Amino acid sequence: MKYKNIREEELKNKVGADWFKQFDTTEILGNIDFTVFPQQDNLFGRTPLLWAEAKTGNFDVATMFVQLILTIGKARTFDKTMPPAFLGAFDFKKIAFVPYINIQDIFYLNDFNWNVTPSNHETKEFQLIKQRIEATLKQNTYVYDYEKDEKELQAFIKNNIAKATTTNKLKIDKNNFIPIYLRWLEIIKPIIDVNWDDLKKANILDSDFYLADLFVDDNNTQNIDDDLSIRDSLFVVFQNQGYKIAKENLKQMFDATITLKNKDTYLHFWKRYKRPPLKEFQDYIIERRDLLVPQDIRERKGAFFTPRIWVELSQKYLTDYLGENWQDDYYIWDCAAGTGNLLAGLTNKYNIYASTLDQADVNVMHERIDHGANLLKNNVFQFDFLNDDFSKLPQSLQDIINDEEKRKKLVVYINPPYAEAGNTKQRTGTGENKANTSINNKTYDKYKGIIGKASNELFTLFLTRIYAEIPNSKIANFSTLKNLQSSNFKDFRGFFRAKLEKIFLTPADTFDNVKGQFPIGFFIWDTYKKEIFKGSLADVYDKFGTFKREKNIINYDFEKGLIGKWLSSFKINKNEILIGMMNTGRNDFQNQNLVHIQQETADKGHSIYITKENILPSAIFFSVRHCIEANWLNDRDQFIYPNDNWRSDFEFQNDCLTFTLFDNSNNVQLKYGANHWIPFTEYEVNAQAKFESNFMTDFIKGKIKQEVTNDTLFEQATTKESKPLVFSEEATAVFDAGRELWKYYHAQKDVNVNASLYDIREYFQGRNDKGRMNSKSDDATYTQLLAELRSKLAILADKIKPKVYEYGFLKE
Fold first, then answer.
1. What 3-state DSSP class applies to 251?
2. Residues 6+ apart with CB under 8 A from 707
3. Euclidean distance between CA atoms 177 and 344, whole angstroms
4. What mean pLDDT is predicted for residues 411-429?
5. Which contiguous run of DSSP H or E holds residue 18?
6. How far is CA 712 from CA 37, 50, 385, 647, 721, in A?
7. Residues 6+ away with beta carbon under 8 Å from 445
8. Which InterPro entries match (predicted)?
9. pLDDT grade, residue 303 (50/70/90)?
10. CA 116 – CA 120 distance, rounded (Å)
11. What is the DSSP letter of 37?
12. Percent of the chain, pLDDT > 90?
């Protein structure tokens, strides 16, 4: 058999290489085993071609598809990203495909428990799905044996997968027809060949063209104007790959025909959506065409907006949680509205309230209302949420807040300020930088003794007042993750005991004027349900709005401590020979760049002296902090106090020492004192003179005696006679690569034999006019040797990474 007796990861790699090499099969999407994407993005990003289940055994096709369906349904992946044209399933012998459209209705089963474990084939849910799809699979599945059907399989992939565009389109309903319109304005309106100013004089708007597009019947490839009731309600109709405006609507003698400048762009856009809208929403959409107003929000200097992509997604999450009719069933108040763009797309203006600090923002919203924005002027007002009394609110909103039952139906929907309150440039989400905003407000004075340091953050002051003074309401807010994870927010978490119902994460730099690499979350809280946040699975989206995976968000208050506390237990207070000093930074990824080793660091409050007694735990700390790259998603993750299993793993300890010796953040430099970190003897690197210090090679060879105490953590230090360190294959490869680099350096003229890795890099790379070390060198041999060292060090880092989680330095 072609792929018999190999592991699942290897099977996926081989199937990808053998059959899908012209595609990208590297992308990870949630818990789906195998994905196929085009190599290149199109105008709207990359649409998946195939999602597949992989099995190493010999499984029946139905069983594999059921597990895939349960995996997709549990995560509702089809709601978070465009579904593929095909689903697939393969084992070591065969591969099968089924068009997604043939099984998509399964995902909309009522009263079905999608929370079962997909790999448990004994559950009643597994059996139910299997019964439902077996007949469908018999009619619509394509099954190929890798060896017997090689040519047929290649042909299927070429003629179907390679040419696939998803056959499952997003269904248009009353909750998403406005967000789709906002995208239509960006993509389709610019390619319609018409003078918009002339049309506006005839009261023909861009929204009329959107409705014409919306009511095309894709299934029958003909215009919906065959339906007289719909046709009579439209000012513009789509026909013959263009638009027609009846002469009566233009008050002229002839109908107007309008063409598209780019038909491919048009077709690509509408491939994402199923037209016409669902029948039960067609009349509603026609009746509420007044909601389709151009997004002509006037941006005043310094104004920011919640990106439209996240506005749309947040409203989708609210729909998923509160139900399809939530905008009719709930009241909505944006109490940090700025100029109101967070409310774009909402439909029931009688249930919407918007307030903001500045009267200028209110004036902008009122002007928008005059031009058709879907808000009521009486419900848009100036209000200083952190200072003003609720008696200043409109009476209808007061009635909601003062009524216990109505409060349960109030959604406070906000993107509040989430910069520190003392900052003079406050990020106010949908508003602007407010230079006068500070912690001098009544909410701060009232609650600072309860929520502690969290009172320095404006967004937590908003959450605090809502939680305390509008009890049992729902809160839907954007913010950083500090309220969930920061140690400074422990008091706040003890006070704010609302249940987190849903959360998704986005890159912060997708928000206007935010440059940091960290996550911003959208949270839906139920303040009626009282519980302390301990952890939650968050959906993760990339900057294009594509769902990537789930991430576990943890409250670290319940851990033994953070990694700094662990390292503190190794501080040396005795008069030992110091070989260096390590700045330990803080406890999270965002301060990873602070962790470095020198002879002496300036920040002694966050540093530890390194001696022969604590060099191994120091190396473990250093390696744990640097072997995993910081990124926007893990930026707020905290390193914590580990379990004890690392103590007996000497290979892990020695891997970490190796990593520490050769990583670029080991910044020991001769100009600051003796270099005790040379990992080789003079003989190994053909040094031109004797080294001043052989500490490191003596330590490696077991020649450095470590003092024995009753609480010694290393078995190799339990006697005065230390043993030589034994290095793994990966660590040895790093030493070998490093040795070649050192030898090349010592072969140069006029070098300092005591040079550190930093000094060697400086020697070959030099410095620029600003005094910074250059990133490259003109010496090709050095460049190649350094690249080889970094390559081997990366392999060693990959070996260390799983132990970081296994020993509890990080939580997955």
1. coil
2. 613
3. 12
4. 60
5. helix 8-19
6. 53, 55, 57, 10, 14
7. none
8. SAM-dependent_MTases_sf
9. very low
10. 8
11. B
12. 56
pLDDT digits (tens, 9 = 90+) for 657-706: 999 999 999 999 999 999 999 999 999 999 999 999 999 999 999 988 76
Mean pLDDT, the chain, as a whole number? 86
Among residues 665, 792, 666, which one has the least CA distance to residue 740?
Answer: 792
> Helices in 241-358 by DSSP H: which ranges?
247-250, 263-270, 279-287, 308-322, 326-329
How far apart (Å, rounded) are the C-alpha atoms in residues 37 and 47? 7
SS3 for 601?
A: coil
pLDDT digits (tens, 9 = 90+) for 767-809: 988 888 999 999 999 999 999 999 999 999 999 999 999 999 9
Strand extents, DSSP E, 674-766: none
Residue 547 Cα distances to 27, 125, 307, 313, 507, angstroms: 11, 25, 16, 11, 12
Cβ of 390: how many Cβ atoms within 10 Å?
A: 14
Whole-number pLDDT of residue 71: 95
Confidence class for position 718, pLDDT limits 50, 70, 90: very low
SS (H, E, C) 60-92: CHHHHHHHHHHHHHHHCHHHHCCCCCEEEEECC
Whether 455 and 488 have beta carbons less than 8 Å apart is answered as no
Which whole number is the average pLDDT over 614-630?
A: 94
Query: 552 forms bridges with which residues in the sheet?
Result: 537
Mean pLDDT across the stretch 739-757?
A: 95
The set of residues, in sequence order, having a beta carbon less than 8 Å from that of 546 and lying 6+ positions away, is 45, 46, 81
Q: 627 is written with which tokens?
A: 């072997």
**308-558 CATH pick, 3.40.50.12420, 3.40.50.2300, 1.10.10.10, 3.50.30.60:** 3.40.50.12420
The tokens for 33 are 């085993």
Identify the pLDDT of residue 300.
Answer: 31
Instruction: Name the pairing type of β-strands 580-583 and 596-598.
Output: antiparallel
**Domain locations in the chain?**
8-166, 171-291, 308-558, 563-726+800-806
pLDDT of residue 438: 44
What tokens appear for 567 in the block? 């390292």
With bands split at pLDDT 50, 70 and 90, how would you rate the model's confidence at 584? confident
* Pairwise CA distance, residues 416 & 788, whole Å: 48
- Convert the pLDDT of each residue in 382-403 to its tens digit: 999 999 999 999 999 999 999 9
User: Residue 362, Cβ neighbours under 10 Å: how many?
Assistant: 21
75 to each of 90, 203, 313, how far by Cα in Å?
A: 21, 45, 16
**Residue 764 phi, psi dihedral angles, 5° rounding:** -85, -30
**Is residue 315 within 8 Å of 321, Cβ to Cβ?**
no
